[in-house]
Amino acid sequence: MKITDIAPRRHRLSQLYIDGEAAVKVDTETLLRRGIAIGDELDEIVAKYGDDRRTKILPFSGEMNVEDLIAEENVVVTVTHSGFIKRTKADEYRSQHRGGKGIKGTKLREDDVVDHFFLTSTHNWLLFFTNKGRVYRIKAYELPEGSRDSKGQHVANLLQFAPDESIQTVLSIPNYEVAKYLVLATRSGKVKKTPLAEYDSPRQGGLIAVRLMADENGENADELIGAALCNAEDDIILVSKLGMSLKFQADDEQLRPMGRQTAGVQGMKFRNDDSLLAMDVVPGDSDKDLFVVTNEGFAKRTAISEYRLQGRNGLGIKAVQLVEGRGALVGALVVSEDDQVMAIMKSGKVIRSNVDEVKRTGRNTQGVTFAKPDKGDTILSIARNEEKDEPEDGGDAAANGTAETAQSGENVNNADEA
């Protein structure tokens, strides 16, 4: 570059700088005028509509619970004999009429069967009472979710069971104020009433629910068979596997409250090889029924009022007339007329039917057909389901139930009563 070329270039650069400064000055003045105009408009808005702040912004002082983020909905919980557990949305189980073949309730291994099957809410506490007399708890939403025919997850991954410990009874409660007492019963006929609040503990290893009798070798000679919520004004009914029953009051005179680690008192005595099959609580002055089912699918519904009050520690009175060919008792429930009962079969099938489809009969009768197990199949247990069908689904449910009944090849509406 020649020296003579520097001066013209310097002049052009200087002119560009001067022009840029002028443009920036103009833009700044323009922005300033616009800012003043916007400020004036905001002042007018504040003068016309402004008032004191109505909300307060405070630091968050609470704790975020995972339960707050989980939807509360009805689910069916299934527990198998070998320990597999799951929760399934309740609407996957349709209603059927009595006498139906049922639908597949869960996928089972060849040597496995369903032990517990009940309806609950995802936010409820589940109390697991074991044959060893211990109780464990977990929230329903913590159970693995699966479809109706899925296998689920083994309970050992959720609860810290001891060796040879298995689930005997499961209770679902929203909180520990829902009832005053918890009543427990054992196979030998012992019963115990303990304040429910004594079982409210976060211990992962479980709690002692009842102290079981031991044999001469120090091993448990008894097992827990039932647990139920109870108040002092309620009645308790015990049913044996040979069809005997005993109803007594749950007041402090008949059954005084005891501590959590006590063994209880004798509730019912037995003849021959009989033992306690089921225990349930009857609300005082209720119009409920006792619903019993045999393994061959026969059921009987009798008003609780036909079972007179007796003293504790008696032999009881007959609850059902058991005859050859109709099977042995597998379950007994206290139900209302608008309840539903689920029958769980050895094959894993489940049939759900309305209680009012089984006609009320006398105490010493044989009952009618409730379910029709396939050849080689039997009913293992029953469970109460208080979920009601929606009205708009009633037609479909009735149609499905009629179809299942027609396939069974028997007109169950004409079943003979004893």
Describe this structure in words.
The structure is a single chain. The chain is of the alpha+beta class and 418 residues long. Helix content is 14%, strand content 31%. The chain contains 2 helices and 24 strands. β13 (235-240) and β14 form a beta hairpin. It is elongated and about 130 Å long.
Overall residue-averaged pLDDT value: 81
Distance between the termini: 125 Å
Low-confidence stretches: 390-418
Structural class: alpha+beta
**Beta strand %:** 25-35%
Largest sheet: 4 strands, antiparallel
Radius of gyration: 34 Å
SSE pattern, N- to C-terminal = HEEEEEEEEEEEEEEEEEEEEEEEEH
Tell me the number of strands.
Answer: 24
Helical stretch tally: 2
Helix content: 10-25%
The shape is: elongated
Strand line-up across the major sheet = 4-1-2-7
Task: Furnish the topology, listing elements before pairings.
Layout: H1 6-49, E1 74-80, E2 84-89, E3 103-104, E4 114-121, E5 125-130, E6 134-139, E7 153-154, E8 167-173, E9 181-186, E10 190-195, E11 207-208, E12 224-230, E13 235-240, E14 244-249, E15 265-266, E16 276-282, E17 289-294, E18 298-303, E19 317-318, E20 329-335, E21 340-345, E22 349-354, E23 368-369, E24 379-385, H2 394-407
Antiparallel strand pairs: 1-2, 1-4, 2-7, 3-22, 5-6, 5-8, 6-11, 9-10, 9-12, 10-15, 13-14, 13-16, 14-19, 17-18, 17-20, 18-23, 21-22, 21-24
